[in-house]
Amino acid sequence: MVSSCQFGVDVEVSGSAAAPVFTFGNMGWFGGDEPPIFDTLEVSENSTKGWPIAWQVDRHERGCRPATSRVVYGRTPSGFLVSTKASALREGVTYELFVNGCGRTGGALFKVVNGQVETVSRNGS
Predict the structure, then answer these.
(1) What is the pLDDT of residues 2-15, one digit of tens each?
(2) DSSP 3-state assignment of 78?
(3) What's the 3-state SS for the chain?
């Protein structure tokens, strides 16, 4: 039996479809004041045709440093490499942002509406 301990990452999505901003914080009682640390950030289409990746970056060197508090879509954060080049986000499409690594995991669903990004709940509203 294998077990692990994953702490949550709180994710906020804001801005325009051209440059959504992802803001990260630690979730819950274990949160603390420092930004979370993760190795992978992936944005995928939430689609019946699978989960085509719209953009993915991975930490260049594992080691869980430095922390990352804010990422702009398509702009590679310091210490990360592009695994999948960013594609233009499309109107009306729902996307899932997922972060993982260093004992942390989190994500958010968002949709492009009238050129802006809006958070979508897991039940679709």
Answers:
(1) 333 346 778 889 99
(2) coil
(3) CCCCCCEEEEEEEECECCCCEEEEEECCCCCCCCCCCCCEEEEEECECCECCEEEEEEECCCCCCCCCCEEECCCCCCCEEEEECCCCCCCCCEEEEEEEECCEEEEEEEEEECCEEEEECCCCC
CB-CB contact of 36 with 106 (8 Å): yes
Q: Which two tokens stand for residue 123?
A: 């039940």
Q: How far is CA 43 from the centre of its chain?
A: 6
Instruction: Record the pTM.
Output: 0.83
Could you tell me what percent of the chain has a pLDDT over 90?
Answer: 47
User: Between these two residues, 96 and 106, which has the higher pLDDT value?
Assistant: 96
Judged by DSSP in three states, 15 sits in coil
